[in-house]
Amino acid sequence: DAGITQSPRHKVTETGTPVTLRCHQTENHRYMYWYRQDPGHGLRLIHYSYGVKDTDKGEVSDGYSVSRSKTEDFLLTLESATSSQTSVYFCAIRGSDRNTEAFFGQGTRLTVV
Amino acid sequence: DQQVKQNSPSLSVQEGRISILNCDYTNSMFDYFLWYKKYPAEGPTFLISISSIKDKNEDGRFTVFLNKSAKHLSLHIVPSQPGDSAVYFCAASAHDRGSTLGRLYFGRGTQLTVWP
């Protein structure tokens, strides 16, 4: 199994509070991604990173920010959590080779009350 | 606009029969395609992939077919087993320039149910 760990695995937070989710990898892969999964929407990309300090927005980036200060860690921050951000969040990693798969973490279930 | 589309949200198949899951894409720059399987409360796991230079790739019971002219790919599972019941996601990537390099685009998934 690819070395990818998400923390926390579950979190309940209140509306308006900041929340940070962490993704840690031990594979030294170049690419890291944050997705959210919601019923009827599949996997939607929030932000991704193509190198240390190199990040770009995905399709649902509003209300989220990311940081990647070192290869192994990719942090996702909800600046002020809203109920619409209640979701399951997945981190993924992918190597630099032309044709290679991405590996996913186990997910973080976030509930905003 | 969704660049990868899975138009069937669900599929029900009897055990032992063939399951065919379909996926369409719009971006002609996509050159690598993947299928993932996801069980509840777990992360998606890679199943099989295909490069645009091929039109077929097999791995055991799983075969992916690619029709570039139609911008369509399909996943065949033969024979289907109850343990195959899961959500299947189609994904695609393009090796063009710039920061989109390495980005994966996913469909919305198809829930496959294999009944005995």
Largest sheet of chain B: 6 strands, mixed
Helical residue percent of chain B?
under 10%
Unreliable runs of chain B: none
User: Which residues of chain A form runs of ≥5 with pLDDT under 50?
Assistant: none
Please give the radius of gyration of chain A in angstroms.
13 Å
Q: In sequence order, what are the helices and strands of chain A, one letter per element?
A: EEEEEEEEEEE
Assembly of the depicted chains: heterodimer
What's the topology here?
The complex is a heterodimer of chains A (113) and B (116).
Chain A: E1 4-7, E2 10-13, E3 19-25, E4 31-38, E5 42-51, E6 54-57, E7 64-70, E8 73-78, E9 87-94, E10 102-104, E11 108-112
Parallel strand pairs in A: 2-11
Antiparallel strand pairs in A: 1-3, 3-8, 4-5, 4-9, 5-6, 7-8, 9-10, 9-11
Chain B: E1 4-5, E2 10-14, E3 19-25, E4 30-38, E5 45-51, E6 56-59, E7 62-67, E8 72-77, E9 86-94, E10 105-106, E11 110-115
Structure description:
By secondary structure, chain A is mainly beta. Chain A has strands spanning 4-7, 10-13, 19-25, 31-38, 42-51, 54-57, 64-70, 73-78, 87-94, 102-104, 108-112. The radius of gyration of chain A is 13 Å and the shape is globular. Chain B is mainly beta and 116 residues long. Chain B is built from no helices and eleven strands. Chain B has strands spanning 4-5, 10-14, 19-25, 30-38, 45-51, 56-59, 62-67, 72-77, 86-94, 105-106, 110-115. Chain B is globular and about 45 Å long. The model of chain B has no long low-confidence stretch (mean pLDDT 93). The A-B interface holds A 30-31, 33, 35, 40-45, 48, 50, 54, 56, 58, 90, 92, 94, 96, 98-99, 101-107 and B 6, 9, 32, 34, 36, 41-46, 49, 51, 89, 91, 95, 99-109.
Task: Give a concise summary.
The complex is a heterodimer of chains A (113) and B (116). Chain A has strands at 4-7, 10-13, 19-25, 31-38, 42-51, 54-57, 64-70, 73-78, 87-94, 102-104, 108-112.
Please name the defining characteristics of this protein.
heterodimer, A: 113 residues, mainly beta, 11 strands, B: mainly beta, five-stranded antiparallel sheet
